[in-house]
Amino acid sequence: MGTARNTHFNGIAVAVLTVLCSCAGVARGGELSIDQKLALLVASYPETIAGIEDGRLIFRDGGAPLLIDDGRVKDHFAKLGAGDVEDSLSQDYPVGACETKPSVNFDPGRIRSDPLMMRLYGASAREVERSLVNVDWFGTVVRMTRRQGADIALGQVRDALKSIPGVEKYVSPSAGTFNWRKVAKAPNMSVHSFGAAIDLNTKYADYWVWSGGKPGHVPAYSNRFPMAIVETFERFGFIWGGRWYHYDTMHFEYRPELVAIAKAAGVSACP
């Protein structure tokens, strides 16, 4: 990677740290205000988001501002299908090296604003593909977007994972990264569509759809991925599908704003 990109993404860390410091008065495990969460969102994507004005996200490319809250009251599945920016921050993702047993429909990160994701990564398969780069993944090559530093973050995850004994059988072969498609049994776009997600070895995976689950009612399962892998991904801004009620344990997606919110509010997966 070039020096310019190193400098740029070191700047992201500084920006997020600055916002974290502004939240210092929040009790550990306390809820952040929506304004604090939005500040962390802006700080997490400085490549694209310039700031907030009149209830809208402002973008560096000069394009149309994006409304943060559409004012509609939605249940969980309406948020999944057509979430706005505020909806995407409505559930706090927990971080740490411990497993969690999420309550029904607790899916932090599954609720997303498709319009925001398209502004961050591209509004079509062709546009996203223009930003894909090759990342070495345990002797194979996967394609990840270079936008928002997702490729850099995945490389950092890879390097850190190599220190975990016996890790390779869990993380390789990858079951895929870029794939322009909707989420299974849902109308919204998968983060794989934007080249900002990776699936690990399906041999150790549990997935609510494969298990015969229905939306709002899924079978129990026993996680087979070491939590050291999860903690490593989270350290570099990825969230894990194993923390969702509608679980997908092989799945990790780059959502640095949710990890930053968890750290600022002290939302831990560990008791």
TrEMBL record:
InterPro entries: Peptidase_M15C (IPR039561), Zn_M74/Hedgehog-like (IPR009045). It holds the Pfam family Peptidase_M15_4. Residues 186-254 form the Peptidase M15C domain. One of its GO terms (molecular function) is peptidase activity. This is M15 family metallopeptidase.
